[in-house]
Specification:
heterodimer; A: 403 residues; alpha/beta; FAD/NAD(P)-binding domain; Enolase-like, domain 1; 26 strands; 29% strand; globular; B: 104 residues; five-stranded mixed beta sheet; 3 helices; 17% helix; binds flavin-adenine dinucleotide; binds FE2/S2 (inorganic) cluster
């Protein structure tokens, strides 16, 4: 008898898990349940190529739509799981139907953090999390359209870059004194601020959104200094929160994320969790983290697939991430602390340089802008916990391999 | 339809009827050749790493610097290494022969 694995959330983690498990055909019966209308897809293009219209919708799909049926995966879209009965090992679905499982995987991801200001519910205020969001944005984002973006994190900045390329007039409003402050060190922030301004983005730092104005739809944003910015479109990118309600209601342990162990197991031995929704230990980092990245979604999904296939191994991956803005391709690895030593390698004005983070001489992070080899090396060093000499590292005459 | 001759990680050779106009990576991924292609073809992850048969090397456009930088630092790098997301499948590549690189 094959084991029935039910996956809740047909996103990047859920989709990857289904694909991985389907390789052991006879062993598992797989049901993948997603509340969105689309088969599992990649979200990164939503603020990049797909927003610009450079790639068609199907290009964002993790696998072609027909793949799931071909592999015997029961993909149920437009369906929400509303409750878990752990004793009966069954789920309640939005249509009222119940479904039993042998093993359950929660891959519920995150939802956007809503902006707590007057006018937030007006038509014309958008977030970027789903295909539907980006499609809605694309209908308004014509050449010359005025766009105000709340949040200078990487999603807000990617959208700013894409919309500038599409000929929109873009204003970015960021509360902190620099962009992407949570993710990168100051030299990287300053470089990106200059790059956006050079491309004509009106970037306001240390500024909040006080109010979104308009009667039938959003027409302007008032910032915290009282300035008014006309807007055909307001985009909000101020972070996300993990979707844990289903897990919480079922009595699973949560703490800003569903708590899992190094094998992606929750506090119930029959229930696993992967992706943006989990708080998990990472041996390389030496602490518990909740990550929002494709890397983590994929690697944790794999961790579950291995565990279910009796090939289990502890999760220990170097976190990595990327961001595309204009012609700038940034690749990042590690999870440096805010007070780690920062070493700049190369000259930012050449638009190709990297920033390394060190703690007591050990490499903890790298941000490589248009320089793939520094990224690859840095990621490797982080995994090895390697010590490097900061003076040699800063010297570009020494090839990265010989540092 | 052009074909690609693929040696998978287990060492088995099969022939895939490929689709032109999309990348070699998409052809491999969509037909479940265990190519993860985590970054979706953004040239950011190197999980679409393949070895191109020597006879086909010269028929491909050479790698851009970002592809080269990423792939040459893979522990499984060989002179025939390419990132398959950076190669567009075309009818001219009918018969392309490649091997999927081991997981790094
Ligand atoms: C615009 C944008 C750009 C990004 N760019 C990058 C990037 O460049 N690089 C990178 O590494 N990462 C990027 N990310 C982050 C990355 O997309 C996420 O980390 C990844 O999608 C996480 O996968 P997941 O499966 O955990 O969650 P998700 O992909 O969010 O999937 C969760 C799914 O579960 C569904 N769901 C939730 N609850 C239920 C329920 N009760 N019943 C049924 N279905 C449910 C949700 O509707 C959703 O479809 C980006 C994200 C966004 C939004
Ligand atoms: S798919 Fe990531 S580099 Fe090719």
């Amino acid at each position: 008898m094959s084991e029935h694995i039910v996956i809740v959330g047909a996103g990047h983690a859920g989709g990857t898990l289904a694909v991985q498990l389907a390789r052991a055909k006879d062993r598992f019966r797989i049901t993948l349940i997603g509340e969105e209308a689309w088969p599992p897809y990649e979200r990164p293009p939503l603020s990049k190529q797909f927003l610009m219209g450079d790639v068609p919708l199907e290009k964002t799909f993790l696998r072609p739509e027909t793949f799931y049926a071909d592999k015997g995966i029961d993909l149920r879209l437009g369906t929400q799981v509303t409750a878990i009965d752990r004793t009966a090992r069954s789920l309640t679905l939005s249509g009222g139907e119940t479904l039993s499982y042998d093993k359950l995987a929660l891959c519920t991801g995150t939802r956007v953090r809503e902006i707590p200001v007057v006018g937030r519910d007006l038509p014309g205020v958008h977030y970027i999390r789903t295909i539907d969001d980006t499609q809605a944005i694309r209908t308004v984002a014509r050449e010359g359209a005025k766009v105000v973006i709340a949040g200078g994190g990487y999603i807000g900045l990617e959208a700013a870059a894409a919309l500038r390329k599409m000929g929109c007039e873009v204003t970015v409003i960021e509360m902190m004194d620099r962009v992407m402050a949570r993710a990168v060190a100051e030299p990287v922030s300053r470089f990106y601020e200059a790059a956006h301004r050079a491309e004509g983005v009106n970037l306001l730092l240390e500024t909040g959104v006080a109010e979104i104005g308009g009667t039938d739809r959003a027409t302007h944003v008032v910032d915290s200094h009282g300035h008014l910015h006309p807007a055909d479109l307001v985009l909000v990118g101020i972070g996300v929160v993990p979707v844990v309600e289903l897990a919480e209601a079922a009595g699973l342990a949560t703490d800003d994320g569903i708590i899992v162990d190094s094998r992606a197991r929750t506090s119930d031995p029959d229930i696993f969790a992967a992706g943006d929704c989990t708080r998990h230990p990472n041996r390389i980092l030496g602490r518990d983290v909740r990550l929002e990245s494709v890397q983590n979604a994929v690697d944790q999904a794999r961790c579950i697939a291995n565990e279910l296939s009796d090939k289990g191994a502890d999760y220990a991956e170097v976190p990595w991430f990327w961001s595309d803005q204009f012609d700038l391709k940034m690749q990042m690895a590690g999870l440096p602390a805010p007070d780690d030593q920062v070493v700049v390698r190369g000259e930012p004005s050449t638009r190709s340089f990297s920033v390394f983070y060190l703690r007591d001489g050990r490499v903890t992070g790298v941000n490589a802008i248009n320089v793939g080899s520094d990224y690859v090396r840095g990621r490797k060093w982080i995994g090895e916990g390697r010590d490097v000499d900061s003076v040699r590292l800063a010297n570009t005459e020494i090839p990265i391999k010989e540092v | 339809m052009p074909v690609i001759h693929i040696t998978n990680r287990a060492g088995t050779e099969t022939t895939l009827e490929a689709e032109s106009g999309i990348s070699v990576m998409e052809n491999l991924r969509d037909n479940d050749y265990e190519v993860d292609a985590i970054c979706g073809g953004s040239c950011a992850c190197a999980t679409c790493h393949v070895y191109i048969d020597a006879a086909w090397q010269s028929k491909l456009a050479p790698p851009e610097p970002d592809e080269q930088g990423l792939v040459e630092d893979e522990p499984t790098f060989k002179p025939t290494s390419r990132l398959s997301c950076q190669i567009e499948m075309t009818d001219a590549l009918d018969g392309l022969k490649l091997t999927i690189a081991p997981e790094a």
